[in-house]
């Protein structure tokens, strides 16, 4: 009977589905254990072999915990809103819901074929109205809440209204907007409804505000910082600019300190904790107020070094700062405006990371130093960010390197306020060794004392105070997209109103176009039926907005992180139509015990999820304020990418006849883009390394390959002189990813396949090697569909089976580390499974053959050392070493010819979490009904590893001649007597009497002749 993995795996996958083997109950006498994976976005390309790595690990642990007697919740679902489906809809006109459903079908098939023990009865999809009803509901709860600093938690907005009605807002200690105006209780009662709503928006935990955002014109939407890479959108590589827009924001900054403190209570990877700590960015210092000369304006700054205030020689504002337009002089207006426009094209991340580029503009205005009253020039510089602190810094060039470089570049004075320090070459930043000088009342003081005194004197002047600041900013919560959660919001007199719970969900309407409207509104502006009737409490046609009871609905949708910020709780009670989850469910499951996912989600998902969890905790909805006790970041599986080099050439056309310049330019650009030239790796390497003479010869061959381009231009402009030149700057070419399926093991590109792959490559030219082949370069990178270096798990499962894939991915190395994929390596895992199968099928012609005989001492020893090692490995998430242990055990048991049930039954259970299909089949053949999945994990017994005898090497004059097994409890004299009585000793001595017999019990025997 051979190992038919295809039939075995299909049969058991069908069995699990039919019997709902892994369905978890919300009530159980067993202890609970909640294992969660970060749920996937279902892209059109499906899974590649890098995706299952974390799923396999979590599945092993979930299966192990079931064996250990736990009631295990191991759910799965889909983060199914998002930009890719919308971009596809824009290109094809196909509704995102249709493509998303098709993608989910592919994902589900692939996940099932890998044998995961998911409880599919709890599946959630963020794009399902039944799911996002509760995302909308949470948004409403956040809107109807404010953050009370006195109680340090979120409270119902009605408690704030009560305070306003009783005492006004002078004594309200809340997290709120900065520009709050104080009012009395009588004022509050006299305010109009709209005025009251405007004031409450300044306190609500989600609010509307004009915010600087990352605007991507090509995608027509706002992007989060983590959606931008190298200044362009992560999806599509489109330019991103800074733009002020009215957006919904979440007041996550209210939770900054609690988010920091909570990191000390969870078992998460330290690098991830560090990432969140840095993102939150707590710093202690002072706020200081600088008056603007000849204006009524003030500049508020936050500084961690108030002790250096006498070293201020200029102020720097973020280019987006609201004061810039008010204080810039007429003479500087053009320069400042040009600089602002240039800055808008750079992302915040680029501005923070770029420490080499020094740029700025002088506003023409001056601030007044709080103590000296001296004028201080006010500049703008893109190294200052509007959203961090106050968007303004007091620039102390002697103590900050960026300020120093800026001052040097623009010839601004650099006063030295540090005693005994040379600042001729660079700024001095060692605050612990600082002694202040040239600073009036701070002279001679060390950092800490000077800091306290500076704050005291600022407070005396009424121009500052001690303060703790956080880098964390409120999270922009609007997206100008179609495929996202609609806001449960309509507008009356421009003020947002929430839709009552009983009328949720507010479902996405149909639209004809997924692009923004012609007037720049988000795609929902294209919907004809998108207004709210307050009488019927239904969505109605926009044409009815003129009626007194019908109002416009919000046109923005929620960001991608909205649906993923509470899905782990919804899994506990996913089909509850009346509540987000029942109290019984949340009280039973409490929180996630083990969460596995990528480190790239450190802020975009995990920080926001923790914020929502803490808010829900404040409102008494959840019992824990951290949602996941333990988190593991699995490493990535890397693939070997292939690169082709696209030649960068330019075309000059000297026109003899009359042609429109734009016509020439457009046609020239089209010819270049439609006729790319690619150069083979070795030819390219020669050009890179050659001297000028060689370069000229080589570029002539490149020029010949572009003849086709020249011919096209000559046909269009026959009277013209056409010249094609290779760029001779730093790089004459551009590396582009090629799909690895077009590359063979010798790194040769299938040119015809490559040309058919992409429309823009159809007329490409190729500069080949002398033998006519075209070579690519190779590089190990993260396995990713965008890098075209993926391996499809379908093909692996077809050839080797899911159990082989599971074992191989674990065998590659420690879970947290990155690992290279090599398909050839999977044969080792597959070979092991065939060996395992043969252990149970040692009968004639491979028949199943398990005996009831008592195992040998060696077989018991093999089994129990395997139990011990595998249990330790699973508990420590060292899954790779378990696979090695299985291989050793099967080899040893095979050599021992062990077919005893007392060994093979527990062995099948041990293997089950890793290779569940073959384990289920073996369990069935061993005569058991049902699934192996809940059978008790084998118990390790120390006695089987305790040695009762020792195999001694017996040496004569230091040379080992034979081995002798003796009981470990023999005394030294008894060992000597036994070895001297042995016939092999007599053969060695040949009648001689030894001079000495050296015995070390448990170690050696040496007979000296």
Give a structural overview.
This protein is 34% helix and 19% strand. By secondary structure, the chain is α+β, with helices and mostly antiparallel strands. The strands form ten sheets. Strands 11, 12, 13, 14, 15, 16 and 17 form a seven-stranded mixed sheet that branches. Strands 26, 28, 30, 31, 32 and 33 form a six-stranded mixed sheet that branches. A four-stranded parallel sheet has the order 2-1-24-25, with helices on one face. The protein starts with a helix and ends with a strand. The model has no long low-confidence stretch (mean pLDDT 90).
Summarize the SSE layout with pairings.
Elements: H1 5-19, E1 32-37, H2 52-67, E2 71-73, H3 83-92, H4 96-113, H5 129-143, E3 145-148, E4 153-156, H6 157-167, E5 174-175, H7 185-190, H8 193-201, E6 206-216, E7 221-223, E8 228-229, E9 232-233, E10 241-250, H9 256-262, H10 270-280, E11 282-292, E12 298-303, E13 314-317, H11 324-327, H12 333-343, H13 348-353, E14 361-368, E15 375-380, E16 392-395, H14 401-409, H15 447-461, E17 464-470, E18 475-476, E19 489-492, E20 495-498, E21 531-533, E22 538-540, E23 550-552, H16 567-570, H17 583-589, E24 592-597, H18 606-618, E25 628-633, E26 637-647, E27 649-654, H19 661-674, E28 677-679, H20 681-689, H21 692-705, H22 707-716, E29 721-726, E30 733-738, H23 751-757, E31 765-767, E32 777-782, H24 793-799, H25 802-811, E33 819-820, H26 826-840, H27 857-875, H28 879-895, H29 901-911, H30 916-925, E34 949-956, E35 959-967, H31 972-981, H32 983-989, E36 996-1000, E37 1004-1008
Parallel strand pairs: 1-2, 1-24, 13-15, 24-25, 26-33, 28-31, 34-37
Antiparallel strand pairs: 3-4, 3-5, 6-7, 6-10, 8-9, 10-18, 11-12, 11-14, 11-17, 13-16, 14-15, 19-20, 21-22, 21-23, 26-28, 26-30, 26-32, 27-29, 34-35, 36-37
Helix pairs in contact: 1-30, 3-4, 20-21, 24-25, 25-26, 25-28, 26-28, 27-28, 27-29, 29-30
């Amino acid at each position: 009977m051979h190992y038919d993995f295809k039939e075995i795996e299909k049969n058991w996958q069908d069995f699990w589905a039919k019997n709902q083997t892994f369905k978890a109950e919300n009530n159980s006498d067993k202890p609970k254990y909640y294992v969660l994976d970060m749920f996937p976005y279902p892209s059109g390309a499906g899974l590649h072999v890098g995706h299952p790595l974390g799923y396999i690990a979590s599945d092993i642990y979930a299966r192990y915990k079931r064996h250990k007697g736990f009631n295990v919740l191991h759910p799965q679902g889909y983060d199914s809103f998002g930009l890719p489906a919308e971009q596809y809809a824009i290109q094809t006109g196909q509704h995102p819901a249709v493509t998303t459903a098709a993608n989910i079908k592919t994902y589900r098939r692939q996940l099932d074929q890998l044998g995961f023990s998911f409880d599919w009865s709890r599946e959630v999809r963020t794009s399902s109205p039944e799911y996002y009803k509760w995302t909308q509901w949470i948004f409403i709860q956040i809107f109807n809440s404010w953050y009370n600093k006195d109680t340090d938690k979120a409270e119902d907005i009605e408690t704030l209204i009560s305070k306003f009605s009783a005492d006004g807002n002078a004594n309200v200690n809340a997290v709120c907007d900065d520009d709050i105006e104080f009012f009395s209780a009588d004022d509050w009662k006299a305010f109009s409804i709209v005025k009251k709503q405007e004031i409450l928006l300044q306190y609500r935990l989600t609010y509307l505000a004009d915010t600087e955002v990352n605007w991507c014109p090509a995608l027509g939407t706002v992007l989060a910082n983590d959606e931008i890479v190298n200044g362009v959108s992560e999806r599509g590589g489109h330019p991103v600019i800074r733009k002020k827009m009215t957006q919904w924001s979440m007041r996550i900054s209210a939770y900054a300190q609690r988010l920091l403190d909570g990191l000390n209570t969870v078992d998460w990877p330290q690098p991830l904790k560090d990432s969140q700590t840095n993102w939150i960015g707590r710093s202690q210092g002072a706020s200081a107020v600088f008056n603007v000369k000849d204006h009524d304006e003030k500049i508020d700054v936050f500084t961690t070094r108030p002790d250096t205030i006498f070293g201020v020689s200029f102020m720097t504002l973020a280019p987006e700062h609201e004061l810039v337009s008010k204080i810039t002089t007429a003479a500087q207006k053009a320069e400042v405006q040009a600089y602002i426009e240039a800055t808008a094209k750079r992302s915040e991340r680029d501005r923070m990371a770029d420490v080499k580029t020094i740029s700025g503009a002088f506003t023409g205005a001056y601030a007044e130093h709080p103590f000296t009253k001296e004028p201080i020039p006010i500049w703008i510089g893109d190294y200052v960010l509007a959203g961090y602190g106050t968007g303004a810094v007091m620039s102390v060039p002697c103590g900050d390197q960026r300020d120093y470089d800026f001052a040097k570049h623009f010839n601004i004075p650099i006063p030295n306020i540090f005693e005994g320090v040379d600042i001729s070459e660079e700024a001095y930043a060692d605050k612990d060794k600082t002694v202040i000088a040239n600073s009036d009342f701070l002279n001679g003081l060390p950092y800490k004392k000077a800091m306290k005194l500076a704050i005291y004197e600022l407070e005396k002047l009424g121009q500052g105070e001690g303060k703790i600041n956080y880098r964390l900013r409120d999270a922009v919560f609007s997206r100008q997209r179609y495929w996202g959660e609609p806001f449960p919001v309509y507008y009356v007199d421009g003020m947002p109103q929430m839709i009552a719970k009983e009328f949720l969900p507010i479902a996405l309407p149909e639209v004809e176009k997924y692009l923004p409207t012609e007037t720049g509104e988000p795609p929902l502006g294209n919907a004809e039926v998108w207004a709210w009737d307050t009488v019927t409490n239904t969505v109605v046609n926009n044409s009815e907005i003129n009626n007194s009871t019908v109002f416009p609905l919000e046109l923005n949708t929620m960001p991608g992180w909205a649906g993923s910020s509470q899905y782990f709780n919804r899994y506990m009670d996913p089909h509850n139509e009346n509540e987000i989850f029942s109290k019984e469910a949340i009280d039973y499951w409490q929180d996630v015990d083990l969460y596995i996912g990528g480190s790239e989600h450190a802020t975009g998902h995990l920080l926001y999820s923790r914020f929502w969890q803490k808010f829900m905790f404040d409102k008494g909805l959840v019992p824990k304020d951290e949602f996941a006790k333990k988190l593991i970041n699995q490493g990535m599986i890397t693939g070997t990418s292939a690169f082709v080099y696209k030649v960068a050439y330019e075309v000059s056309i000297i026109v003899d006849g009359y042609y429109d310049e734009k016509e020439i330019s457009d046609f020239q650009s089209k010819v270049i883009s439609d006729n790319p030239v690619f150069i083979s790796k070795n030819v390219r390497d020669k050009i890179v390394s050659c001297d000028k003479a060689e370069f000229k010869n080589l570029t002539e061959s490149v020029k010949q390959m572009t003849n086709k381009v020249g011919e096209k231009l000559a046909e269009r402009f026959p009277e013209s002189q056409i010249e094609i030149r290779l760029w001779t700057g730093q790089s004459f070419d551009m590396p582009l990813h090629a799909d690895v399926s077009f590359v063979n093991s010798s790194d040769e590109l299938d040119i015809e396949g490559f040309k058919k792959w992409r429309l823009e490559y159809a007329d490409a030219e190729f500069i080949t090697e002398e033998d006519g082949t075209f070579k690519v370069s190779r590089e190990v990178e993260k396995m990713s569909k965008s890098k075209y270096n993926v391996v499809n798990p379908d093909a692996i499962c077809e050839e080797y089976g899911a159990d082989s894939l599971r074992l191989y991915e674990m065998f590659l190395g420690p879970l947290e580390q990155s690992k290279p994929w090599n398909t050839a390596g999977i044969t080792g895992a597959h070979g092991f499974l065939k060996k395992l199968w043969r252990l149970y099928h040692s009968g004639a012609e491979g028949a199943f053959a398990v005996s009831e005989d008592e195992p040998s001492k060696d077989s018991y020893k093999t089994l129990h050392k395997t139990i011990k090692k595998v249990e330790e490995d699973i508990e420590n998430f060292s899954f790779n070493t378990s696979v090695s242990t299985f291989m050793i055990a099967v080899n040893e048991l095979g050599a021992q010819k062990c077919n005893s049930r007392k060994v093979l039954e527990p062995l099948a259970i041990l293997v089950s979490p890793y290779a569940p299909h073959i384990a289920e089949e073996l369990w069935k053949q061993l005569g058991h009904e049902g699934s192996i999945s809940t059978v008790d994990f084998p118990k390790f017994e120390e006695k089987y590893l305790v040695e009762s005898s020792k195999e001694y090497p017996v040496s004569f004059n230091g040379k080992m001649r034979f081995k002798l097994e003796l009981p470990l409890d023999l005394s030294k004299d008894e060992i000597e007597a036994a070895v001297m009585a042995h016939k092999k000793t007599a053969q060695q001595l040949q009648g001689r009497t030894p001079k000495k017999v050296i015995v070390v019990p448990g170690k050696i025997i040496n007979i000296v002749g």
